Amino acid sequence: MFTAHVVVTVLAAAWVAFSAVSVFARAAWVVEPLAEYGVPQALWPWLGAAKTAGALGLVAGLFVPAIGLAAGIGLVVYFTGAVATVLRARSYKHVPFPLLYLAPVVVAMALA
């Protein structure tokens, strides 16, 4: 079970880190929906920083479980907020995207 936890946690952290890099790089497929949802451009670097901290925290949690738990909780709150933002913008076709990032984080926490 420990091996599964490590693999899922590393993959979840990599997936969240990819999302953070996409925000920092201002990939069109990320920032265009953010603008469409009404998320102010001034917040985008903070969103990327939150994802980066969460990804690093998940990996650190393999060595210090309390850090991983805190990072996991933070990411769950972050991506739940992302789902709420998408729903508030009535962009229902985009709801699965934040869920694709939320799911591996939840699984990693469940395996911890």
TrEMBL record:
Species for this entry: Nonomuraea soli
UniProt KW keywords: Membrane, Transmembrane, Transmembrane helix
UniProt main location, coarse: membrane
Entry-linked InterPro entries: DoxX
Segments traversing the membrane: 95-111
Cellular component GO terms held in the UniProt record: membrane
Protein name per the record: DoxX family protein
Localization, UniProt: Membrane
Protein's membrane topology: Multi-pass membrane protein
Coiled coil: none
